[in-house]
Amino acid sequence: MKRELSIKEITANMLEPYTIPEDSPYLSEEQRELSKLSYQKRMEWMAEWLMLASHTDDED
Amino acid sequence: MSSGQACVLLGIATFSKDGDWIIKETPESCSKVLKILERKNASYRLGLPLDPAWLSKGWTSHFEYFLGNGYRMRVDFCSRPPRVPDISGLWQNSIKKYDVDIVDIQSLIELKQTRRVRDYSIIGALAEVAGFVQDKPELSMMYLQDYELLKKAVKKWPEIARKCNREAVQTILQGKSRKDTVISLAVEQDEKIQADETRINFYREKSKSYQRKCMAASAVWKSENISLSEQHNQLLSIVKEELV
Hints:
The complex is a heterodimer. By secondary structure, chain A is mostly helical. Helices cover 60% and strands 0% of the residues of chain A. Chain A contains 3 helices and no strands. Chain A is flat and about 45 Å long. Chain B has a domain at 115-206. Chain B contains 13 helices and 6 strands. In chain B, the strands form 2 sheets. Chain B has a 4-stranded mixed β-sheet with strand order 1-4-3-2. In chain B, helix 6 packs antiparallel against helix 7 (137-143) and helix 12 runs antiparallel to helix 13. The radius of gyration of chain B is 21 Å and the shape is elongated. Chain A binds chain B through residues 4-8, 10-15, 18-21, 24-27, 30-31, 34-35, 37, 39, 42-43, 45-46, 49-51, 53-54, 57-58, and chain B through 5, 8-17, 67, 69-72, 92-95, 97-98, 102, 104-106, 121-122, 124-125, 128-130, 132-136, 139, 145-146, 148-149.
């Protein structure tokens, strides 16, 4: 019988690469890309967006 | 790390500007955070001083500082996040990655039940991934926000659906119309939005005169370049007089 995963295990799994279903009503192509990345790469993604936001603010 | 940035690290949000942190309500923890923020030339935004006495009552502290390129970084701290009653469980379930504790998915779902409508898409996304990708159907059943996926969840996990006391799940099980389920989901969401609004209004009402004094102090901090530690001391005095 398959062991039920704990909330902590689920959370840990989501910090590793995983695949979002193609037909997700909540998530788009960008999240599908992000979810396939490692934790380290997701942190880099976040930093990149922050950099981009700083330029957007300049233009405003 | 919690809220929006935790969502990015969990792979379900692509961007978050504000940093939301849950800290332990100890003098050491507060002092460590204040030291780090002081080194960054941070200032207090409207909120309570970062002190265990106020954190333990559910209040929050807000700061901002500027990066070299002029970008404004906003960081918020609390020790008792709303809707998460078991604080020790919160810490036990967090995942440590590179010295950062990341909030668990269930607590994140609770945290995200705010007055902002957009947060319910995040909750739906977390519930979808938890159930359909990570095999935790209870979370899907309790927190999916749309009809189609909830119906799919009920069909896939009928036993769990039968045990679930959520009204929207029961309307599907009873074969009621799509409209009934959609209404149930909308009413449920609106109740959560109202509950958060009530919570915020409680804190807002309680702190009206404190807020007025803080805003006056904040204007002086900016013009006279007052250090964060001095700002902190001033806030501690104001809060003592204005907030009982």
